[in-house]
Amino acid sequence: MLFRMFGGLCAAGLIVCIASAQTTRITGRIDNTQRITLRGHLHPKAIAANDQGRVSPSLSLSYVTVNLTQTAAQQADLQQFLVNQQTEGSPDYHRWLTPEQYADRFGGSQQDIDTLSGWLQSNGLKVVAVARGRNWIAFDGMAAQVETAFQTEIHHYMVDGELHFANSTEPSVPAAFDSTIQGIHGLNDFRMKPSNLKKKSAPDYTSSQGNFIAPNDLATIYDINPLYSSGTNGSGQTMVVAGQTDVNLSDIETFRTRFNLPANDPKPMLVPSSRDPGVSQNDLPEADLDLEWAGAVARNATILYVYGTDVMTAVQYAIDQNLAPVVTESYGSCEPETLSSDMNTFRSWAQQGNAQGITWFAPSGDNGGADCDDDQNPGLAVDTPASVPEVTGVGGTEFNEGSGVFWNATNDPNSASVLSYIPETTWNDSVADGTPSASGGGKSIMFSKPTWQTGPGVPADNARDVPDVSLNASADHDGYMVYTGGQLQIYGGTSVPTPMFGGIATLLNQYLVSSGTQSSPGLGNINPHLYALAQTNPGAFHDVTTGNNIVTVNCGRRRGICSNPAVGYNAGVAYDQATGLGSIDVNNFITGWSGAAKTTPSNAASMTLLSNLNTLGGSDVMYLVATVTGTGGVTPTGSVTFEGNGSSLGTPSLVGSAGVATATLSITGNELQAGSGTITASYSGGSNSPSASVNVTVSSSGSVSNATPSISALANAASYKQAFAPGGILAVFGSGLAPSPQTAGSVPLPMSMAGVAALVNGVAAPLYYVGPGLVNVQIPYQTTAGPATVSINNNGKVATQSFTVAAVAPGIFMDANGAVVPTTSASRGQQIAIYITGAGAVSPAVSTGGAPASSTALADLPKPVQSLIVTVGGVAATVAFLGTPPGLVGVTQINFVVPTGIGTGALPVVVSVGGIPSASATLTITN
Q1: Residues 644-667: tens digit of each pLDDT
Q2: According to a count of CB atoms within 10 Å of the terminal CB, is the N or C end of the chain lower?
Q3: What span, in angstroms and rounded, lies between the C-alpha atoms of 212 and 477?
Q4: Which CATH number applies to 710-805: 3.10.20.310, 3.20.20.100, 2.70.50.70, 3.40.50.150?
Q5: Confidence category of residue 1, pLDDT binned at 50, 70, 90
Q6: Strand locations in 631-687, DSSP E?
Q7: Phi and psi of 174, rounded to 5°?
Q8: pTM for the structure as a whole
Q9: What is the dihedral sign for C-alpha 119, 122, 125, 126?
Q10: Angle subtended by helix axes 311-320 and 340-355, to nearest 10
Q11: Could you tell me the strand order of the sheet in which 621-630 lies?
């Protein structure tokens, strides 16, 4: 009877059911002489050039954490469970676990925990904490004990004038622990850095010095006031702010008094058994900023300030103890300079938090597209833990008033002066500040694309992209007022909007509970819903479409390995890697949340089917190209099913971008029934299951085609060099390539003309022109760098040729004399336009064969993702405009000003994209 009752409760979804206790994995004898090495634990800054020698054996290491891995079955179960928690209709929807329930389903066995703890203690180490989720053990010990246990050495390293310690070799553990330990956090003291930028003291709020943000300014700009008026102010809710310093509550109290916020002190909580960091002057402004502005949004919420010597230990503890449904921390480090073992560990914590209903916010960084901001890694990089898919990454915008009036000349009693929402652009004050100061963003090198990160503008890069959302982050225009160290200061950086988003999530939790939508607070990973909401309720977002986060890293003294690259991304319509989905209208965001949660984003699609042949013989090859167009810019995925006379012909996969994808099938007449028939293509991935068909006639044998194509050469259609890139124009030379000349008459480009079709790596390639001796095709944007093959099918007869594709391969359009077109001569200081192909990926993305609409604003035209430089006579020119014009496919227009400091005569013009130069064209300088 007991088992029948238990099973009935499971079926009804009333409790979380665990089939059995966890399997014990440590079963062999623990032999310290038989060991395995744990990879991914060498800090990138702990290099020989910085080595200061071995630390003292008595150096104390505190709260070092051994993190347990999961079995493959547990990992698969957890991944599906996290999806179910965010899927309405699932029995697991918003069914949050306690840490103990998480332990029983996804943690290690108690016996494994006991065995590992015993081994640590046998090496003289003191176990100070064991996770409730049974997925980590924390210990203290002296350096000599740690070195013995993990058979490594701990050394001092001098980095940027600071003395650190770190392990000098990868640690190892007994082989009996194989497949049990994921990683070790805390073998070094390279801590994450706060993401804030101090601007200046603030004696005034609205003054000749500029405008500064007070709490009520924020409430007006981002439309929070209607929520406050209805009682949604954080009452009854709890959130965690994580830090790594003690704080003086008097600063927070002064902030709240000054701006007429209700008295509501945060509650400091030192991680038990961890070392008290004391007051760290480097971290105090961050803690004050986070506590003041989280409380400025969620004004009546209980804010727990959890801290230790390492902010990530505070996050770890907050998640394990399930302290609140919202956790925010304003620290990060760039991925190339973060231990891969740590990034995996952070993700495991985030997944546990999500399973318990916790939403974790982190900043995207303040160094634009070059997050590391140093000469060791001066190129593109993103910030972690914001790059973790189960963490919400918060980027930065900047107010852009233009000629509008948005501020009062004086402050009201609450020290506010703003009048309304202010238009926003991407935060990038790098030029004004003389150092990278811009919204972090880009693609992760560690984490692949999560399934939920889809929608207009999301790059098809198979990488987790950040940020997810943004708010104003400029210290210059306009900064936030913060009391710290007893003084009022102005701050910016992505660490300001991060705690504010934590406050917004806290308001959202209150709203959903008070409206009866949820019985208890908790949202888990909000990212899937964010991307769906952006498509179903765009009024909840302010789409930031201008500006960029492109920065130049100062190479400093190590110029030999650094070339001062300018790297970053442009903002664009919908999602972009500078501001994510944009900023939000908080009232619309919160009040529209639950309704959108019950709405499945439309994935209706339309389909066209083209064939290069309608009549073919048995030996002829026919290309069938199904083009599927999604709604709202969502690119269809999956496959297309082709059938002929009721029989399956094949199910090729869709490939595409920017809302359009194609599936290509090549078949011979011998594979079809003789006579007249119909071939149908159908797509089941759309809610409307579109289909399309073509009529074909097949003779019993032989061929109805005459010309046999032959390819003699391939070239970049602009430069006529062997330089090819995705999206670029490929010129195919030969004989018998087409029965007669024909030029594409409209955009999007056709996939077949005069019975001619082309494939690149098996993907349909749009056609610009076909003729007996020349075919111009666009290399699909989805083509990966490396070896490639182009196939030209002339009415059933096929010729192929191999070539190599690079990420970028710029070629300048020029005339027969090698001069740039359309302007072959110019004077110094004159602005002219040139055109290139082969710039590679563009942002916002445009579909293969497609072009921007004529209504597209100049600022929103697709631009090369990689940096572009024009030189004339070796002198860099100022680029005034860059983009793909409406109506053009695979072509980038560049307007530049001819440098004044050059000579006259025919001078070389070179366009470099991502550091790759084009072949030179000439421009005649007249005067």
Answers
A1: 877 888 888 888 877 788 888 888
A2: N
A3: 8
A4: 2.70.50.70
A5: very low
A6: 641-644, 647-650, 655-657, 660-668, 675-682
A7: -55, 145
A8: 0.66
A9: positive
A10: 30
A11: 605-611, 621-630, 660-668, 655-657
Q: Are 619 and 702 in contact (CB under 8 A)?
A: yes
244-259, pLDDT tens digit by residue? Answer: 999 999 999 999 999 9
First to last CA, the chain: 99
CB 750 within 8 A of CB 718: no
- pLDDT tens for 175-226 read 999 889 999 999 999 999 897 776 654 444 444 446 899 999 999 999 999 9
CA-based nearest residue to 287, from 240, 320, 333, 349: 240
10 Å Cβ neighbour count for 226? 14
Q: C-alpha dihedral over 127, 131, 132, 133, to 10 degrees?
A: -150
For every residue of 13-74, DSSP letters joined together read TSS----SPPPP---S---TTSEEE--S---TT--GGGEEEEPPTT-EEEEEEEEEP--HHH
Q: Could you tell me the pLDDT band of residue 559, with boundaries at 50, 70 and 90?
A: very low
Euclidean distance between CA atoms 400 and 896, whole angstroms = 25
Question: Per the structure block, which two tokens stand in for 303?
Answer: 């804010």
The pLDDT of residue 238 is above 50: yes
C-alpha–C-alpha distance, residues 362 and 28, integer Å: 41
Q: How confident is the model over 114-146, as pLDDT tens digits?
A: 999 999 999 999 999 999 999 999 999 999 999
CA pair distance 296, 299, nearest whole angstrom: 5
Q: Which residue has the tokens 């194509």?
A: 709
pLDDT tens track for 439-498: 999 999 999 999 899 999 999 888 999 999 999 999 999 999 999 999 999 999 999 999
How far are the Cα atoms of 60, 101, 107, 133 from residue 21, in angstroms, in the given order? 37, 11, 10, 14
Distance CA(917)–CA(719), nearest Å, equals: 12
For residue 276, count CB atoms less than 10 angstroms from its CB and return exposed for 0-12, middle for 13-18, buried for 19 or more. exposed
Using alpha carbons, select from 284, 280, 321 the residue that is nearest to residue 304. 321
Question: 784-790: long-range contacts (C-beta < 8 A, 24 or more apart)?
Answer: 784/726, 785/726, 788/724, 788/760, 788/761, 789/759, 789/760, 789/761, 790/711, 790/714, 790/730, 790/732, 790/758, 790/759, 790/760, 790/765
666-675 tens-digit pLDDT: 888 888 888 8
| The CATH number, out of the four listed (2.60.40.420, 2.40.50.100, 2.60.40.10, 3.40.50.300), of the domain defined by the range 811-925 | 2.60.40.10
CA separation for the pair 545, 534 (Å, rounded): 14
Give the residue extent of every domain in the chain.
Answer: 2-185, 193-597, 626-695, 710-805, 811-925
Q: Is 126 exposed, middle or buried (0-12, 13-18, 19+ CB in 10 A)?
A: middle
Looking at every residue in the chain, the average pLDDT score rounds to 90
Evaluated on CA atoms 903, 908, 909, 912, the torsion sign reads negative
Each residue's pLDDT tens digit, 417-436: 999 999 999 999 999 999 99
Cα–Cα nearest to 550, from 467, 439, 424, 638:
439
Rounded to whole angstroms, what are the CA distances from 634 to 808, 847, 849? 25, 11, 17
Task: Round to whole Å and give the CA distance between 356 and 95.
Answer: 8
Adjacent-strand bridge partners of 359: 326
Percent of the chain past pLDDT 90, that is, above it, reads 71
Look at residue 765 and tell me whether its pLDDT is greater than 70: yes
Instruction: Phi first, then psi: give them for residue 131, nearest 5 degrees.
Output: -65, 140
Give residue 579's region: left, alpha or beta (phi > 0; psi -120 to 50).
Answer: alpha
Structural fold of domain 193-597: Rossmann fold (3.40.50)
Strand pairing class (742-743; 729-735): unpaired
Q: Which two tokens stand for residue 72?
A: 């493959």
Separation of alpha carbons 10 and 95, rounded Å: 13
HEC letters along 707-738: CCCEEEEEEECCCCCCCCCCCCEEEEEEECCC
pLDDT of residue 462: 86
